[in-house]
UniProtKB/TrEMBL annotation, chain A:
Pfam family, one: Pirin
Residue ranges of every copy of the Quercetin 2,3-dioxygenase C-terminal cupin domain listed in the record: 149-234
Organism the protein comes from: Mucilaginibacter oryzae
Cofactor note (record): Binds 1 Fe cation per subunit.
Binding site for Fe cation: 59, 61, 103, 105
GO molecular function, one term: metal ion binding
Protein known as: Pirin N-terminal domain-containing protein
TrEMBL record, chain B:
UniProt-recorded name of the protein: Response regulator receiver domain-containing protein
Length: 238, 99
């Protein structure tokens, strides 16, 4: 029997720094909720909106797989490995912080907000060599089907990370459904709705709601309205 | 009120300095940062630490050595692998360790 946990959008943490509005699915910075520490290897899911030209100055990370998914606008990235890049809607960025990395992230646009998801996954190996990866995806490849955007395999679709984790994005028309087979025994899926309504195991999720599901091999996801969503398939024990 | 003493061990000087600064931003906590196992072992004798954070670059051999040393001296010490490096996880990790 599948186990599930529902996280409604309005139960997330919220930080308002003026230039940054961050909705946090799990404990982060000033938001601490012992019941919301992680979902398996998924430790951070921040839903961030940054004002024009503003951003996160140079700061360090280590031992974390960090994935950024822009939803609207352009995000500028610079890091201590001399990577300089602008990621936009349709791109996905992964960074293995490993032994240590410094980076900054700014809204590249001077007139409009950037909205992006910042996702942190615990790595399956500590102290790896830091690395950075970015790919541009075809948005049509997620229309009424699941588009893989993260995997553990360098040769697979999307970016890769140091963890047995797979991410898929979907943009489904109302009434379209898909079966999702969990990628690895012991994994669970954190389904996060980006827009519209989706139904999983009879549970209706609205925009920015999430459902964690585990102890099952597969489940059905159906669009109750035109909807976009992200499926994060991660080890529950790591 | 006496501050809670937290020992932070990490191999990256700038990240260690950032973690120490962030821990010390909580007025009830005091962090001591150590780059080497030897420094950490020496520091452990000096203060009554409640939590040890093992940060980036601390390999399995060191982790095992430090775990054994610290738990022998103080069996109830909370030793936590710190992930993320001076980031948003720090406070929650410490709160969890102090529960």
């Amino acid at each position: 029997m599948a186990k599930t946990i529902l996280h409604k959008a309005d139960t997330r943490g919220h930080a308002d720094h003026g230039w940054l509005h961050s909705y946090q699915s799990f404990s982060f910075a000033g938001y601490y909720n012992p019941e919301r520490m992680n979902f398996g290897a998924l430790r951070v899911l921040n839903d961030d909106t940054v004002d024009p030209g503003m951003g996160f100055g140079k700061h360090p990370h280590d031992n974390m797989e960090i994935i950024s998914i822009p939803l609207e606008g352009d995000l500028e990235h610079k890091d201590s490995m001399n990577n300089v890049a602008v990621i936009k809607n349709g791109d996905i960025q992964a960074m293995s912080a490993g032994t240590g990395i410094f980076h900054s992230e700014y809204n590249f646009d001077r007139t409009s907000e950037v909205k992006f998801l910042q996702i942190w996954i615990y790595p399956n190996k500590r102290n790896v060599e830091p690395r950075y990866d970015q790919v541009s995806l075809n948005l049509n490849d997620r229309h009424n089907k699941l588009q893989q955007v993260v995997s553990p395999n360098p040769d697979d679709a999307g970016v890769w990370i140091h963890q047995d984790a797979w991410f898929h994005l979907g943009k489904f028309d109302k009434g379209v459904s898909a079966e999702y087979a969990i990628k690895k025994e012991g994994n669970g899926v954190y389904a996060f709705v980006l827009s519209g309504d989706v139904i999983i195991n009879g549970e209706t999720l609205n925009s920015r709601d999430a459902l964690g599901i585990w102890d099952t091999d597969q489940f059905t996801i159906e669009a109750g309205t035109d909807a976009e969503f992200l499926l994060i398939d991660v080890p529950m024990k790591f | 009120m006496e501050k809670i003493q937290i020992l932070v061990v990490g191999r990256h000087p700038e990240i260690l300095a950032t973690v120490v600064r962030l821990v010390n931003s909580n007025p009830y906590w005091n962090a001591t940062g150590c780059l080497s196992d030897e420094e950490a072992i020496a520091a452990f004798k000096e203060l009554d630490f409640k939590v040890v954070l093992l940060g980036g670059g601390v390999d399995g051999t060191s982790e095992s050595l430090l775990n054994t040393h610290f738990t022998t001296i103080k069996p109830d010490i909370k030793i936590v692998q710190h992930f993320g490096g001076g980031s948003g996880l720090l406070s929650a990790e410490i709160f969890e360790a102090l529960k």
